[in-house]
Structures are given as structure tokens and as C-alpha cells.
Amino acid sequence: xxxxxxxxxxxxxxxxxxxxxxxxxxxxxxxxxxxxxxxxxxxxxxxxxxxxxxxxxxxxxxxxxxxxxxxxxxxxxxxxxxxxxxxxxxxxxxxxxxxxxxxxxxxxxxxxxxxxxxxxxxxxxxxxxxxxxxxxxxxxxxxxxxxxxxxxxxxxxxxxxxxxxxxxxxxxx
Length: 173
Hints:
By secondary structure, this protein is mostly helical. The chain has six helices and no strands. The protein has one domain.
């Protein structure tokens, strides 16, 4: 029998998609004067990891794929490559979420930083492997550092603006 998704999953997915696409809209706005400076953080990736580590029951893998695939199309990245990397990374974080739940935030931040680094390295290696053009290594490292440094701000904003809180001790999925 087909099970109807619960209200928490539907509402969480809709709020996530709205937030992810709002971040994408802001990213696409022409705010610079044409001079490329420092690359900004990937706030969408930080939001995905924050959401998966806070409320894994509210964010299905298909919703992550939809959000990142739209981002791939609009940012003209190789179609589906970053989507696959983000899906693998977010599912790895989702599997480890019960063990990471009781850890302090600094440990979570370190683990997310390592995960983001592994995801960016895997993406770059796949680009090289299939002979796609790759961005300058310095730009990729700066974007990695900006994303890792922005992660606490994304968690704070998700908590206070979207009400995204971690599961309690007695509350499980």
C-alpha cells in the first residue's frame, strides 16, 4: 500500500526548497560590477548539511536532488555531477546523524568541514577524470574555506529564521 507522507516531511521539504531557492536567487543576482573577487560560500550546501544533521526526517533525498539539480542547470555546471556528490555526502551525514547528535557543535563543525572538503575533492577529481574544465585550485580552496566558515552562520539562521532545531534526547525519527 502507498503511504501518504507525514505533515512534517511535506512541510519541512517545502520550507527547505523555499530557503534553498531563495539562496540560489540571491546568488544569481548581479551584485558585483563585473570584477570577480573572492568566491562566496556555497550556502545551499551548508543549508543541506545543517538540515540533514538537525532534522533528517524532514528532508528526503529526492528533495535534495531536485534542489541541487535546479542549481546545476541555473549555474551551468555539469548536469548531475555536483548533484550526485551532494547526495552521497548528505546521505553519509544522515547515516552518522544519530552518533553525532550528542556531540558539541565544534565537533560537528569539524566533521562537516571534513565532509565538505571530501565532497569538493571528489567533485574536482571526477571533473579531471572525465576531462571537464576545472576551476583554479586557489578559487576552490577559497570557496571551501568560505563555506566552512559560513556553516555556523547558516545553522544559526536556520535555527532562528526557520525554526530548525536538533532532535531532543527522547525524540527520535
